[in-house]
Design goal:
The protein is mainly alpha-helical. The chain is built from 7 helices and 2 strands; from the N terminus they run E-H-E-H-H-H-H-H-H. The protein has 2 domains: about 35 residues, no CATH class; about 80 residues. The N terminus is likely disordered.
Length: about 160
């Protein structure tokens, strides 16, 4: 088992401390890794479209990797795929397209798109018409694209 401990100051955490942690947590063979969180980064400005902190935790707080993933994300195309599936009336296709976007949104920290696509997926699986959600999905995907562009520009 690996235990990650945030070290808020620059002082090294002594191995005695590591041993105390291992003993108190009953993990004699645990590997204790300490890290220092970057202080001063405020990502609240990208909410509600992007929850950067949540997304970064999915990639072990690797900001560079997170930025690459956000940069590759094409939510507008994925939303278009859902809209085309809705127009076709194929509930299985709708469900699969919504599930794909929902999973990506969950992993990258896109809460609004996540909520809308989760609702679309549930409705499609139940055979219910979800056409009324398409304007909300389009708006959310467009807002997300703008927020992502702003976020990525600020990281350069």
């Amino acid at each position: 088992m690996v235990v990650f401990i945030e070290n808020e100051n620059d002082e090294p955490i002594e191995s005695v401390f590591h041993q105390n942690i291992k003993s108190s947590l009953s993990m004699k063979n645990a590997i204790v890794i300490t890290f220092k969180r970057r202080v001063g980064m405020d990502y609240k400005q990208y909410l509600p479209d992007i929850d950067v902190e949540d997304g970064k935790t999915r990639v072990m707080n690797n900001l560079a990797l997170y930025c690459r993933l956000v940069g590759k994300f094409d939510g507008l195309k994925m939303a278009e795929d859902i809209k085309n599936a809705v127009l076709s009336g194929d509930d299985t296709r709708i469900s699969h397209a919504a599930h794909a976007l929902k999973g990506t949104a969950a992993n990258l920290g896109f809460p609004i798109v996540l909520k809308i696509t989760a609702e679309i997926e549930v409705m499609a699986k139940a055979g219910q018409n979800c056409e009324h959600l398409m304007p909300a999905l389009t708006d959310a995907a467009e807002a997300l694209a703008a927020a992502a562009q702003k976020f990525l520009a600020a990281q350069k």
